[in-house]
Fold:
Amino acid sequence: MNDNEQPSYKLTFEDAVEIWLRHWNGEFQNRIASSFDVNPGRVNEVLKERKHVGSREEALNKRAA
Structure:
């Protein structure tokens, strides 16, 4: 079985918090997605709050700390 047959990585809540922080720092969605080895649509789902609801608030709390 080669890498193309493996399921892609599934973003966790902690990943979603990191995505928010990196997005606010000006990183492009496609670069963030690449670092997690996911489709840029998965990053967009986080930023549109379709996935991992509450991650934005958690990231805001981390950013303020």
